[in-house]
């Protein structure tokens, strides 16, 4: 065939049409077929307002909202589906994980934890590099909290309800005074944990490591002297526990371990099972026991586990 101008023109148009079909038309058709996933629901007005604040403040530059099949290692519960985001424009999948993935953040913490955390992330998480958002003001932070609590849609709604149910009970217990409160907190623990002493020997190095963990993870709430008066305290209700009230209440190393590992649903007390290795949990528990409760059962039966630092 001769390359006349007409043939070149027609050929170019054909190539362009093919490219546009493959790159634009087919993907557009395909994504329009996406059906809402089983957890999808539409957002409330407050959640939508919070989403705009999330976009305006660049949260997406540090947080992804997409758990992928290769993310099981970060403790994924559910792989994000295209159908989760059918109503969102733009979709905020994100590409950076400077902070944790938020696709299932709803119900991880109660609202008061988020308020304290947004005002200043160092209050709840002393090592955090997330910027403080106190300048947004109370109303906007409430909307932002509503949005963050909606991440995970119906799956999150269940967790949020659970937090709210337990929050009411935790507040009721707190308002009955320290003795009843501590009794209530311990009532939920499985019996074997309540009797379990800390299996590690108390040592200066162990206490120093526990001190470090306390400063890095606990001090913003429980305070430098363990009286519950850390900078997060004004935002949290029930407030962080004052450890000094635990003396002579039969608090075993096992109770401390269980609470630090699992957190206390409905209160701001987070779980640390994803952040701290087992030995660090025992050590920070013993630090709290020795320095704030003034009573430790570490290695009382002389049969303690030799720490991993032994040669
Ligand atoms: C500079 C990066 C950065 C930016 C910007 C940022 N974050 Fe974070 N975010 C982090 C880091 C790091 C953490 C983990 C430490 C912590 O808890 O603060 C975190 C933690 C969080 C958590 C707690 C997750 C959990 O359950 O432990 C939430 C919720 C959150 N960010 C929401 C937001 C929102 C909403 C915005 C925007 C208003 C935002 N972040 C902006 C880095 C960032
Ligand atoms: C965001 C705030 C916050 C952080 C951070 C936090 N706590 Fe708590 N903690 C609380 C609250 C709130 C309670 C429960 C108060 C209540 O219900 O009266 C609590 C309760 C506890 C209890 C329960 C005591 C018992 O007798 O059952 C232990 C133990 C504890 N915290 C240890 C820690 C340790 C150790 C860390 C750090 C690794 C830590 N907490 C970090 C807020 C926090």
For this entry, give a set of tags.
47% helix; mainly alpha; Cytochrome Bc1 Complex, Chain D, domain 2; 12 helices; 0% strand; binds heme C; 311 residues
CATH superfamily of the largest domain: Cytochrome c-like domain
Bound molecules: heme C
Strand residues, percent: under 5%
Output the CATH class name of the largest domain: Mainly Alpha
Characterization of the model:
The chain has about 300 residues and is an all-alpha fold. It has twelve helices and no strands. It has helices at about 5-30, 45-55, 110-120, 120-125, 140-150, 155-175, 180-185, 190-195, 205-215, 220, 255-260, 280-295. The radius of gyration is 26 Å and the shape is elongated. One heme C binds near residues 238, 241 and 272.
Blueprint (SSEs and pairs):
Layout: H1 5-32, H2 45-56, H3 111-119, H4 121-124, H5 138-150, H6 153-174, H7 178-187, H8 191-195, H9 204-217, H10 219-222, H11 253-262, H12 278-293
The chain binds heme C (2 copies).
In short:
With 311 residues, the protein is mainly α. It has helices spanning 5-32, 45-56, 111-119, 121-124, 138-150, 153-174, 178-187, 191-195, 204-217, 219-222, 253-262, 278-293.
